[in-house]
Structure formats: structure tokens, C-alpha cells
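for ur thesis appendix - Drug resistance transporter, Bcr/CflA subfamily. copy paste whatever u need, i formatted it the way the template wanted (i think)
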Amino acid sequence: MKQQKSYFILVLILGALSTISPFSVDMYLPAFPAIAKSLSTSISKVQLSLTSYLIGIAIGQLFYGPLLDKFGRKKPLYIGLWIYVAASIGCSFTGSVESLILMRFLQAVGGCVGMVAAQALVRDIFPVTKIAQAFALLTLVIAVSPMIAPTLGGYITAHFHWHWLFIILAIICSLIIFACKWQLPDGADPDDSISLKPKAVAFKYIGVLHNKKYLTYILVGGIAGAAPFAYIAGSSDVFINIYGLSVTEYGWLFAFLSVAMIGATQLNHILLNYFSNRNIVITALCYQLIIGFVMILGVWTNALNVYILIGLMFIFLTGHGLSVPNSAAISLAPFDKDAGSAAAMMGFMRMAIGGIVSALVSLFHNGTAIPMVLLMASCILIAGLVLLFYLYSTGELKFILKRKDQ
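the 3d part is after this line
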């Protein structure tokens, strides 16, 4: 490790930074009806606060990349997190849905710095051989969020008031800030040569995208990582309205399927002792594609009952815990100087592709599970084709076929 800090504490703090935004999304979902009633508005308008949050995450990440490279990791990190705290308090005292939408946007712009900074700091702190393991643990922490956040949010909403959701988020973020000051290393030194002019920033992102390996693996990780977005967008309709599960049963199902991604991240630690990041990604995409095809065929022919579909989805989602952290590790490995910008672009790409896939699930909704499983499989197919083209163009494919043990 580049700096002598406890591995566990470092990963815990970086994981907490990474999960600020996901936790902020999942925790207030159960409160939509209560918020709509309290603000005398419709749930559809309250849902716009989620849309504004996702937009804020996507845009904010692009701004933080250059800031983290120019001023070092800590200053932009603290500024962003304190913006998040202030916006969270603003959300709790809002009196209209319009102000809630605005505050949620500001909350996302502030909080998303945690995602970008955490990824850049992984590149700064850990040696290249340990990056994938660190990313796997970050993925684990993020994967735990949908198991804890909605339950916690429902309890707070039922027993207190929805305003307390945002007060608690502000308190959690404040504790994370103090943890960063207490134990988190500074990471890369500030680089005064970096310009923050729009043209210079644009060229900075264009520069990192010129790295063919980086571009390939952020596309592979982003497209393959969008498959769970299709599942999240379509699963409630599929399992509640089509397969007849109750809301409570669906909640348990959501938690169960999250275990697939959590378990895979732990398995990744073991696999990295024997296989390369690249080969783990290839293997995960291959078996996900097979499972995806089986789900499409089974749903199309009505051959799957709910239990078989759940089992197939469980196996499918384990691929997320294998392909995403290893793709991220390969993507960021070439960067020392511009790791912040590279991490920001990677985060933006994931959010943008995930948003598109979520929208497509709604666009193609036809009262069956076909749109969900078709888009899940399509994400893996496209990601696999992108990787296949890269491996062929660089000659790595021929090497893999000759040396299967690599």
C-alpha cells in the first residue's frame, strides 16, 4: 500500500464515500406518498426530484474530475460534501415540490464528489495489483445499499416524518467528512498546470478518452453495468403485477438478489489470485450472455415459473460483481496524473448508460417480462462485442486463444 493506513479502515471510508449517492436515492423511495401528501402534490411530481438527482450526479461528476486533479483530492471532496449537507438540510425544510426538486439537484451535485474521489483515491493509494480488490469491496458496499436504505427509509417515514430522512442523511455525511479528515490519505498532489477553462476541461476529457484501453473498458463496464438498471426499472412490475408477489415479498426478493452482487465481489478476491482482471471480465460476460438468452427464451415461451426466473436472475447478477470492478481496475490502471478526470468520465458514462437503459424499459413496456430480460441480455451482448472488437484489434484475442491459461 502506498500509504501506511489500515486497509480495512481505508476501504470502509472509501466505501462510505461511494455509497452516499446510492443511499440518498434508495432511502427516500418509500417516502414518496408521504412527501406528495405533505407538499400537496402528485407522486409523479415528487418523482421529478429523483430525476433531478440523477441529472445532478451525471453532471457533477464531470466537474469534479478536473477539480480533483488540479486542487488535490481533499479540498474538492470537502466542499462537495458540505454542499451535500447544506442541501440535505434544505430538503428537510422545503415547503414545495419545486424547491425539493432544486435541493435534490444540489444534493446530488455535492454528494457525487464522493463517488469520483473514492475511485481516484483507490488509484492513488493502492498498488495496481490491489486496485481490483479495492473496487470489489467498494462494489460490495454499494450493493448493500439497496438492502438497507429502503428498509431504513420506510421505518423513519412510518415512525417519524419524511423530513427526518434528509436530516439523517446530513448527519451521516457529516460523520463521513470527519472520518476523511481523521484517516483518509491526501492522495495525488495538486497539479497547478491543469486549467479549469471549459475548453481545457473538454480537451482533458477528450485526452483520457483517446486512451483506447480506457475507452474500451469504461464502455464494457458501463454497458454491462447497466443490466442491473434494467432489472431495477422493471422488476417491481414483473414480480408484483405479473408474477403476483406482494410488496413485502418483493422487498425480500430485492434484498435476496442483491446478495448475488455482494457474494460475487467477495468471490472476486479469490479469483484475482488465479486469474487476470481481463479474463474474469470475459468469463462473466460469457456466462451472463448464456443466462440472459435462457431467460429470454423461457419468458417468451412461458416456460419459467417465478422461482426459476429468480434463480436465473440471481446467477445473472453475480456477473455484475465480477465485470464492473475488474473493468474499472483495467480502465484506471494507465492513469497517474489524470486519474480524477478518468474516474469522473467513467462515473458519468455508467450513470448515462444506466439512465438510458432504465428509460428503455419503460418505453418498451408491454405487460410482460420480455423488455426487462431482453435489455439485460442486450447490455451484456453489446458489452461483449465492444470487448471482442478491442481484443481482436489489439491482437489480444489471438493471444488468449493460444494461451488459455492466461
